[in-house]
Specification:
The protein is an alpha/beta fold. The chain has helices at residues 13-22, 37-43, 55-61, 91-110, 149-164, 184-193, 212-225, 242-252, 263-269, 271-279, 287-293, 302-307, and strands spanning 2-6, 26-31, 46-49, 69-72, 114-120, 169-175, 177-179, 206-207, 209-211, 231-234, 240-241. The strands form three sheets. Strands 3-2-1-4-5-6-10 form a seven-stranded parallel beta sheet, sandwiched between helices. A two-stranded parallel ribbon has the order 7-9. The longest helix has 20 residues, at 91-110.
């Protein structure tokens, strides 16, 4: 296929270009800055300069471009700031709402009939989901009046647009938390090297992760074999606590030990991080992706993935 990719230089975008081209697809990559062109070409894609949030500029940049599919992986996580709560105009949230709408218009303009959108397992809600694995049959978009509700709403809005858009086969990929090069593991490793106080004193909530290379492989599988109108959980096989995650980062990436803080102190200082690390627990099942996409993670655990970092 000829694939139009948004988010080409992000944590998943780079391995995704390599995975797409390795599977015979041709990639046109949307980038905001011309300085990114050499990197995109080195990865194997053809760059197109456009801002996903600028609808008119995006459509002008795509004049004369044809594609079979659009893959939306654009986020602003690389430029994210630690905030007490996630505002309604959070850049990544806007990319999931306004950006999705603009890329659906772009899909129509370039003739694409397949649309893959990045979503997030945290869209199930920032609370304790218990010991039972969370599947796609569970309710998605549960808000609880907390500081992270805007993340949940943005995930739901993005998915709804993709599923309801006329003329496209829309698929949403609910990724686990990303780790690997340029993802959360690198971010926390940098913080730990600066002796930043990260990590709750208790075990913290349980979450399920996914290596960026495995996320890229799942995305290619969804492009080829995904069922239209379907959401798929994309995560590894071993949910872990935040304490275990930080311990693996320390062990595998050769960082100083994290300074541990009481969970109440984290919630007080940065409520959103507290909601994520101490109030949210979810064990994600990716069985549907295993069955329908023929995909399984190469790295079954964070420990295995970081060992290969």
């Amino acid at each position: 296929m000829q694939v139009l990719l948004a988010g080409a230089t992000g944590a998943i975008g780079r391995p995704l270009i390599r995975a797409l081209t390795a599977n015979g697809h041709h990639v046109s990559a949307l980038v905001r800055r011309p300085e990114s062109h050499p990197l995109v070409r080195e990865l194997g894609a053809e760059p197109i300069t456009a801002d996903v949030l600028d609808r008119d500029g995006l459509l002008r940049a795509l004049d004369g471009v044809a594609a079979d599919a659009v893959v939306h992986e654009a986020t602003a996580l690389r430029d994210a700031k630690v905030q007490r709560r996630i505002p309604a105009d959070d850049p990544t949230g806007l990319l999931r709402t306004v950006g999705t709408a603009n890329l659906l218009a772009a899909a129509d303009a370039v003739g694409a009939r397949r649309f893959i959108a990045q979503s997030l397992v945290l869209g199930y809600g920032y609370h304790d989901h218990g010991a039972r694995p969370v599947t796609e049959r569970d309710e998605f978009g549960v808000c609880n009046g907390g500081v992270a509700d805007e993340v949940v709403r943005a995930c739901v809005a993005g998915e709804q647009q993709v599923f309801e858009a006329p003329g496209v086969d829309g698929i949403a990929l609910r990724y686990g938390l990303f780790y690997g090069p340029s993802a959360f593991s690198d971010l926390f490793a940098d913080m730990m090297r600066k002796h930043a106080p990260v990590g709750p004193l208790g075990s913290g909530g349980v979450n399920t992760w996914i290596h960026v290379e495995d996320a890229a492989a799942a995305t290619v599988a969804a492009l080829d074999r995904g069922v239209a109108g379907r959401a798929y959980n994309i995560a590894d096989d071993n949910p872990i606590t935040w304490r275990e995650f930080f311990a693996e980062v320390h062990r595998r990436l050769d960082t100083p030990r994290p300074i541990k803080l009481p969970a109440w102190m984290i919630r007080l200082a940065v409520p959103y991080i507290g909601a994520l690390m101490s109030e949210t627990s979810m064990r994600i099942s990716s069985e549907l992706a295993h069955e329908e996409l023929g995909w399984r993670p190469r790295y079954a655990s964070v420990s295995a993935g970081l060992a290969a970092h």
